[in-house]
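User: Good morning. I'm curious how cytidine-5'-monophosphate would be positioned relative to this chain. Could you predict the structure with it bound?
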Amino acid sequence: MSVAALVLAAGRGERLGADLPKAFVPLAGKPLLLHTLAALARVDEISRVVPVLAARDLERFAALGAALASIPKLAPPVVGGRERQDSMRAGLAALAPEFSLVAVHDAARPFVRPDDVRRVIAAARSVGAALLAVPVTDTIKRVRDARVVETPPRDECWAAQTPQVFRVDLLREALAKATSAGVVATDDVQLVERLGLAVAVVEGHPGNLKITRAQDLALAEARLAAGEESGR
Ligand code: C5P
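Assistant: Good morning! Here's the predicted structure, ligand included:
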């Protein structure tokens, strides 16, 4: 079963408060997106890495030139959509039929470890869908209108990360059903869960940070300056 990776980078990234689109914000002197693409290209099981970009960023991406040529397995960029789900749909539509598994990953997670990616791919091969997640350390409250609705048992709460890996046919079906039901999800496996199908949880690493706010970027810079590599 050949595996392709979709790297979703078409979001606005407004919470970062930077002048550049988030995917192009420099991290240790190199755009965030390049760190993430390179991290996935390092995984032997993945044979194609597909960036999904906003149309407005295509020129900026092409201008990276030689830096792109140094990333193996890189496919031409695909134009994403308004919601994350639209970007995923665009990426899926561009996949060649040889790929039967797809790993969907946030461009904003440059520190994902190849070993963790391998483990979640293996789980998806046997179950059909799998994600990386970490047990939460804080107690989680479900809140509406500034009032606590519910406190789920902490030992059952995990924070979802990416990659989330799927059999391509399963994800296509889940996406089509969500679209016709008008469901918009913040995370991809949710689309499979709502069909009542099994999703395997693979324990990841808390270091697989999603760079969202300015302080995340500062932390990422500090980790790289201390010698940690993205994707190790
Ligand atoms: O907004 P959020 O932090 O959940 O976005 C996660 C990832 O999904 C980001 O890497 C972002 O670029 C991507 N995304 C996308 N298309 C959108 C919205 C988000 O590719 N329309």
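The longest strand covers residues 158-167. The longest helix spans residues 114-127.
Let me know if you'd like a different ligand tried.
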